[in-house]
């Protein structure tokens, strides 16, 4: 079936890919590991590990999980870590053991962590030592039995300091000890099919509690192959150097940087703390970088960091922006400095994530999310679920092999987001122009995008409602130069002594940093409909 966007495809791009080319993600990665055995797979703080080393170390970890901890096919194992050398080894070990990886933000608060561990029914977690105080606070309220602690220097051997594990945790085991024990054990191969789960990727929910998107092996294999087919010769197998500054627990970096560039035999330079922009730029200077991915705020931050414009960008093949809209001003400045515009793409946790990207052969920035990748159909629909005419606004609905199996143990939420004919409802309002390109023009949902992270107003409002002195409140997103959007809370007080500082201090205890309202405005009353529904659009108009 012909689609309007096919005419925008670069000459090498097929309209379809075979999502069953590999039985599972493990087979795909092991094949790549053998093909590129002697090449550097990952670098972190200057230390490096080859593909062969990653295969051997992940084998040891998988054997430990199976034999020492009794992990079986389908068991959930949480990984709570920033970008450091232990992450890819632990990840591949978890998958080789046949387990389902639950990606956990290491900056979560105790409340958020407790919900996710319980919802995913996790009893084993691999955690960065710096995140163990949060874990220790909630461990007794969860099913956690096994804690494996990884430090910044694990597998780097540079003498890097890491915080010690929280002493409240009972019998945690060091990641390096787990590898040593597993080295002496046999790994039992697990038969994994395309429909088996590979990740539970948690995403915000309108109820204030995050939901686990069930991503299958076929979902992730498909999205890697879709990206590969779309990029074509812009991928240099065995030669690419990709900088990974966005966190690998985020679906963008997980699929594009981690899985895809492992398959392509690239060298992945892991940036553990991208907020230290000076160190980030210094690390970039050591490499002939060919690929960079990031969110708009990361690009903007680099452009405003001393020394970045002086780097050598002659090897940079392309840069991809996702997670949040790329601003034209940022892309224009990026081209001025590096010689190339940022290629904007679009996707969600529920879609593994890529749904659309701007063609790689295109050199201009047009403020579009591009065109659907191969084997993907996008349908714009009205409130009645009927497809709108080309050029009209409609909810962006997508179908393809990268679309999730559903939400973990949430049949109600799954049914709510799927159409009768099998399309995933994204909640974003888009238009398709007469050339086949798509643009996001509004949101059906009230989600706020802070530095690429989804923030749902209901979650913040639910927490603020528990603060004495607040009668009622509502949150919206407002433009922010640093984070794209920031949270603004409108509050009706019942106690005149309540201050902005009180609100922020309370939120700091309950919410991850990016969810904390950056702006607080006290008002006399909230605008409401006749049935009492708070009208956020009127707050935005203020």
Structure summary:
By secondary structure, the chain is of the alpha/beta class. It has 15 helices and 26 strands.
Could you characterize the architecture of this molecule?
- Strand 8 (197-203) and strand 9 (211-216) form a beta hairpin.
- Among the domains are: 31-192 and 226-318, Rossmann fold (3-Layer(aba) Sandwich), CATH 3.40.50.12780; 448-541, GMP Synthetase, Chain A, domain 3 (2-Layer Sandwich).
- 28% of the residues lie in helices and 24% in strands.
- The strands form 5 sheets. It has a 9-stranded mixed β-sheet. Strands 7-6-5-3-4-8-9-19 form an 8-stranded mixed β-sheet, with helices on both faces. Strands 17-18-20-21 form a 4-stranded antiparallel β-sheet, with no helix packed on it.
- The chain starts with 24 loop residues before the first helix and ends with a helix.
- It is of the alpha/beta class and 542 residues long.
